[in-house]
Amino acid sequence: MNFLQDHVSFTLMLFIPFYWIFGWITGTYTLLLIQTLIILTGGWYVYKLVAFKTSQRLLSILALIQYLFIYGRWTMFGADCNFAIIASSMIPVLLYHFEKKAYSFMFLMLLFVLITREDMALWTFFIGLFLFIQNYKDTEHRKVSLAVMALSVIYFITVFKVIIPSLETDSIKYSLFNYSSLGHDPREAFLYILSHPLKTIKLLFINTTGNPFYDHLKLEFYYIYLLCGGFLLFYRPAYLLLFIPILAKKMLNDEPLRWSSDTYYSVEFISMLPYAVFLILSEIKKKYFKVALIIVVCAGTVFITIYKLSKHKDSSVFWLESKHAFYKSKFYRADFDIREAYQQINLIPSEAIVSATGTIVPHLAWRPKIYNFPKVLDADYIVVFTDRDTYPIDQIQFDAELKPYLNNNKWKIIADDFPLLILKKRTNLD
Length: 430
Fold this sequence. Notes:
By secondary structure, the protein is mostly helical. The chain has helices spanning 3-6, 11-26, 30-54, 57-69, 71-76, 83-99, 103-116, 120-134, 139-167, 186-195, 197-203, 217-227, 244-251, 256-259, 267-282, 287-308, 321-324, 338-345, 361-364, 395-406; strands at 354-356, 370-372, 381-385, 411-417, 420-425.
């Protein structure tokens, strides 16, 4: 498939020039560095937004600290450069310029969020609805919030009714609408939610896979973010509008990975929760009650972050020590010779067609063709780590896929330095 057949996202194309400008310094980390800069920008605007709305410096600083250090921020770093991370980090920028009535820049940010991922329009519609309710008495704000809602609806319909169908072929269909409990497409899902509201609410809490191994995932997510201040949303229910669509997108999905708090699929929540929580706290009039709640929120955030950053037997389903345990020394040390691996990989000609495992692909990607193993097709080289990073298949399947190439006379091993293995397709000269 081509890139847009996976995600209808145009933002990545905007970043391509930065690779050519900075790639000689930043190399394969260029996109991650851009993403980190965007995350920090989002944090800065959370600070500015809370400061502008409350004029309380302490609350602004605490909101920024929570944005940067809440548990989901750490688990987010276990992923690659990701559209949800980028888009959600720009929402505080959008909100700040809305509040400042800098509407031209606000609409530019709205466009950026919309084109970053095909499903963001659903979220921005609810954001517009929230802004409409919160600013109903302000004629100018009210009109702009209605425009946000209208543009979100138009873009959502355009993507799912025009762009996605035009990109599909007989063999490649859009595969990211994984909501079989609701229907086969957004229209069926919308109608199901309207006609079965109680069943839909129930689905937000239950394990739909039938595998008891995942029974606790949804409830674990709720208690984590309730402890981080989410309970305050019920004090000002209008703020729930900011979270309803991303909660539904997360919990109604078929895939347990998305329900988990141990992956980047919490990133929308952690980008918005500090903004909502500390604005709600600013509205509390009773000083001692307000101070007590601030302590509860800060203590809850610190406790749950520290607690969840360690592995818990039988409950940490998607927690990976190699990705999350930054406080351990081995987190910073590879268990193989990186320099030797680079030397071996760099021997592969730049024009050769390669099939490689996930963490190797970025280091070899700038060539006419490259595949993610086990797809090999017309590849000249197979470059894999044999004991890790087997996505999109598990280790057993990976071993089964690799074995025929090891036993095939058409391929020869040119590097076998565990865990790195490089095979080259034999030619007439071999």
